[in-house]
Write a structure and sequence with these properties.
Shape: elongated
Radius of gyration: 24 Å
Largest sheet: 5 strands, mixed
Length: 129
């Protein structure tokens, strides 16, 4: 029995490292994650930098989630980035997909916010010229 207990720490130490080799981590970010327009309903313009890390095997695409529009595609590599000229009047989601699958592997939102929720209006309705 003492031989079994001497192997137990070695088995526990080796097992997690072999499991992590099979996991495929995907990292996906958008900078900045927020676009600010002056008034509610206005189109917001912002350069967004997407960065990601995907496994080396496979073909992947960056898409705009709602319209399914492909922005760029690539063969799996450690780290890549894409500069995008964001132009929208609403919050927009972007996804990373594997070319042969329809389910997104990762998703990020660019949130649209406004400085003023509604245009200011005169309290009295009278204008002074």
């Amino acid at each position: 029995m003492s031989k079994f207990y001497s192997w137990l720490p070695l088995i526990l130490f080796v097992a997690p490292s072999t499991a992590s080799e099979h996991e495929q981590t995907i990292i996906f970010t958008a900078t900045p994650e927020q676009c600010v327009a002056l008034h509610k309903g206005q189109t917001c313009y912002q350069d967004i930098l997407f960065q990601w890390q995907t496994p080396k095997v496979g073909r992947y695409c960056l898409i705009q989630s709602k319209s399914q529009q492909e922005l760029t595609c690539w063969d799996g590599q450690a780290l890549q980035e894409y500069q995008y000229s964001f132009e929208s009047d609403s919050t927009t989601s972007f996804s990373l997909i594997r070319n042969d699958e329809s389910q997104p592997l990762a998703e990020v939102k660019v949130v649209l916010t406004w400085v003023y929720k509604a245009p200011k209006q005169s309290q009295s309705g009278w204008r002074l010229f």
